[in-house]
Amino acid sequence: MSYDPLLNDFPDRQPWPDSYWATTVTRPESLPALNGRRQTDVAIVGGGFTGLLTAYYLASEFNIEARVLEANQVGFGASGRNAGFVLKGSGRMGYSQMAKKWGMETTRGIYDEFSQAVRRVEQLIKQHDIACDPQPKGYLKIAHNAKAYGTLKAAANFIAEHLGDDAEFLTPSELKAAYMDNHQAYGALRLNDGFGVNPLKLCLGYKRVVQSLSVPLHEESCVRAWLKEGAHHRLVTDKGELIARRVVSAGNAYTPKHFNAAVDSRYLPILSNIIVTAPLSEAQLAATGLKTHQVVMDTRRLKYYYRLLGDNRLLFGGRGAISGKDARDPRYGERLKSAMADCFPALTDIAIDHNWTGWIAAALDDMPHVYSKGDMGYSLGYCGAGVAFSAQAAYRLAQHIAGERLPDLPLYRTPLPKFPFARLRRLGQSAYYQYAWLRDRYS
Ligand SMILES: Cc1cc2nc3c(=O)[nH]c(=O)nc-3n(C[C@H](O)[C@H](O)[C@H](O)COP(=O)(O)OP(=O)(O)OC[C@H]3O[C@@H](n4cnc5c(N)ncnc54)[C@H](O)[C@@H]3O)c2cc1C
Predict the structure, then answer these.
(1) Sheet holding 305-308, edge to edge
(2) If one looks up domain 1-138+197-265+366-443 in CATH, what number appears?
């Protein structure tokens, strides 16, 4: 059965997901588990983008010793199974919302962090020669109805006026002529940065870079207990224990439910589901009008995201089941296929070759928090947008551990707020899905 962070005690003994990405790489041998008693300066729990890159920046920029403990094999978590959209932004809050809440200066500061995040990923790919199939740049945000078209236009104007970035607005006919014949589109906003990658290749690339810096990385090493003993932390795994001066919790949505008071009940794990079609034929490409490999997302509350992959398969994602026990229920994949066919009727009968799910971590205040205090830190709550921001978060975490000051921004200032009725999170989520579905359809 699939791991469910709100129900199961630990995320270990889990295979890699049966994803399209897993078919594109040769699976490496597992690295040795932590064995016996070891010591380090910084223990990092979780070997996804956040954990690997925190180790990378600690070693490469600050010469601080770290050790990474991963419960399964690197590539197991969200980092190896996501849609691979490298985007400016994280969380769910819009820039005009931020400006209302915190003012323009702070909003610009956050925008700069998100912009740096994308540049950081580009730089890592280039500097370390990570072959992860980057696609041409461009991010299309599709208005799913007439009202959303107006809201998108306002967002485009806001970005152009206050954040100094070009945002292009496309009418339905311009979208059709240059990008796709999407039957659900009322126009689109196109941003110049943002691009698609193969996330598993990127994750394994980061792993290789961390190993090249001689940072110890242990797989099949689930942390089952985290104890504070005097000035040290003791992390206990099945075969060993790690004594550390500081700990970074980088398990994201896969963090077990009772792990540490600093993170427990502070995020909501939500399932996202992806399907990948058989390669589109020339006739199907012509019928859908798909002429672009840029990344696409719509404006629904329950968003759909999609892109044409290098071999002309269509990747199409959206929300999955609520609980881990239903994660593999075929009806969620079928629901996605039907939403895809609403956009591109020519794909109604296309074969679905891959269908998988993964957990994302939502924050109560819709914003990621990179928080480090004293001898522990975490970065959590990317709300399904962590491919780029995890790089910036990891850099900021490493900086803070090294004693440097972080920009005075809400992203870095406060811990994640606790969900008030943590046990009722799933009921709230279910009610929200029904409300959002109605709003998406009828407003
Ligand atoms: C289906 C899907 C599609 C997505 N699409 C996108 C996208 O297109 N663009 C985007 O920006 N974001 C996307 N995301 C979100 C993105 O993948 C995540 O934000 C990001 O990968 C989080 O990285 P991470 O390193 O923090 O966590 P993860 O990659 O989830 O890694 C956490 C790791 O911690 C390990 N772990 C947990 N507990 C323990 C423990 N006790 N001991 C040892 N190890 C432990 C887990 O095994 C896991 O490997 C998507 C997510 C999903 C699920």
Answers:
(1) 167-170, 188-191, 139-142, 295-298, 305-308, 314-319, 268-277, 352-362
(2) 3.50.50.60
